[in-house]
Amino acid sequence: MQPDFTVDGFIGPGHVAMVTGTQPYDFVASTFHRPFVVAGFEPLDILQSLLMVLRQLERGQAMVENQYARVVPPDGNPAAQTAMRQVYETRADSAWRGLGTIAFSGLQLRPAWRAFDAEHRFTLTPHSVPDPASARCGAVLTGRIRPTECPAFGQDCTPDAPLGALMVSSEGACAACYDYEGARQVA
Q1: What is the pTM (predicted TM-score) of this model?
Q2: Based on CB atoms within 10 Å of each CB, which residue in 44, 72, 139, 176 is the most buried?
Q3: How far apart are CA 53 and CA 45, in angstroms?
Q4: 38-43, Cβ contacts within 8 angstroms, sequence gap of 24 or more
Q5: How far apart are the first and last CA of the chain?
């Protein structure tokens, strides 16, 4: 963990946990001593998940809880996990926008499936696509600053003209912040 890490707890992706189950997130609680709640995507799901994280913090707990139990079984989807293991293997290094390269954090197609792998099928030249210096995606992603504290937020970086990774997707922290509170702060 980075020395200036200020994230108190996590709300995790229910759509991923639907396949994996909740166990892959156990390290967040056991190693980093942070609450982790697997959440659905409806507004009430998010609010309930936030309440669950806050209750853990209030009690001094750090555990994995499943708010999205109506969709996420504790062990996930065994058939989907089997298919994933058959098709994918862990990649040695993966580059993540805003975070850099993280060892063994990504997947690649197994050799039996390489005919479907664009990296092997076509002549592609790997290249880095760093976020512009003005977009502070890494700082937002790691909780060092709020999206509205990024100098590009709402000015050079908007959902219609995203500069950084967190504004590209409507699920990104900056895009969500822009939609729900940023337009008021930028105007």
Answers
A1: 0.76
A2: 72
A3: 12
A4: 38/12, 38/13, 38/14, 38/64, 38/65, 38/66, 38/67, 38/68, 38/72, 39/11, 39/12, 39/13, 39/14, 39/67, 39/68, 40/14, 40/67, 40/68, 40/70, 40/71, 41/14, 41/15
A5: 36
Sequential DSSP letters for 17-69: HHHH-SGGGHHHHHTT---EEEE-SSHHHHHHHHHHHHHHHHHT---EEETTT
Strand partners, 107: 90
CA count, 13 A, side-chain hemisphere, 97:
18
Radius of gyration of the chain (CA): 18
Segment 113-166, tens digit of pLDDT: 999 998 888 888 777 777 788 888 888 888 889 999 999 999 999 999 998 778
